[in-house]
Design brief:
By secondary structure, this protein is mostly helical. 82% of the residues lie in helices and 0% in strands. The chain starts with a helix and ends in a 6-residue tail after the last helix.
Length: 136
């Protein structure tokens, strides 16, 4: 499947926004529970929210990374995506048991940062490879 450059950039942006949403939810939920205890009744406070985000983040990120790498031929970017997704998966599945609540939040933030960095690099490489002047 051949994607246009704007579609590729949109996929990378969507993956970054989903990662940011996950990070915001991780940071905002503990603070909101202190100031507004009724927030715990919202669906955002459930682990289901993280699971649903992962089901969106994983395929979008993988597809964006793979199609971007096919365009710019720099396959090192996949390491950022794989590492970021692995950290997010470990955080979501085992984070609370392994690291405690604070450690789970920290590891989720690290995972989203690594993944977002990979997508931003992927966007830049896609823009560079598709906007080079033709010789001849």
């Amino acid at each position: 499947m051949k994607l246009s450059n704007s579609s590729q950039i949109t996929l990378d942006k969507a993956a970054v926004y989903l990662s940011a949403l996950c990070a915001i939810q991780c940071l905002a939920l503990p603070l909101s529970m202190i100031f507004l205890p009724s927030v715990t009744l919202l669906p955002f406070s459930e682990e289901l929210f993280h699971t649903l985000l992962l089901f969106l983040v994983i395929p979008i990120s993988a597809f964006a990374m793979l199609t971007g790498c096919k365009k710019h031929k720099n396959y090192n970017i996949i390491y950022y995506g794989a590492l970021g997704l692995a950290i997010l998966l470990v955080s979501a599945i085992y984070g609370h048991d392994l690291f405690g609540e604070s450690g789970e939040i920290a590891s989720t933030l690290v995972g989203t940062s690594v993944l977002s960095f990979g997508h931003i690099k992927n966007q830049k490489l896609c823009k560079e490879c598709c906007h080079q002047p033709l010789n001849g």
